[in-house]
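Render Thiosulfate sulfurtransferase like domain containing 1 in 3D.
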Amino acid sequence: LCSGPTVSLPELRSLLASGRARLFDVRSREEAAAGTIPGALNIPVSELENALQMEPAAFQALYSAEKPKLDDENLVFFCQMGRRGLQATQLAQSLGYRGARNYAGAYREWSEKAE
């Protein structure tokens, strides 16, 4: 799967509504501070590889959130336009996170379609 598993906006909404997805905003801190998808954890793509290989306690201390597990389903990565989200998804998959997925519409689509 070179494109990696992607998530559409309707699918993302239903996953979030049922609490079955974890969202990761891999944009810069500045971009995330200006607005993000509610509930997303901001881990810039530049530090993602490090973050995903940390001890769970260290991850928790740094990001104030539980570290995702390798067998978690629906670990959804997104950025502004889609490219960094795909990069992040492929990186997470290469580290063994089988549930890593890319929200291809990214924040741009979310912000345009948000009611």
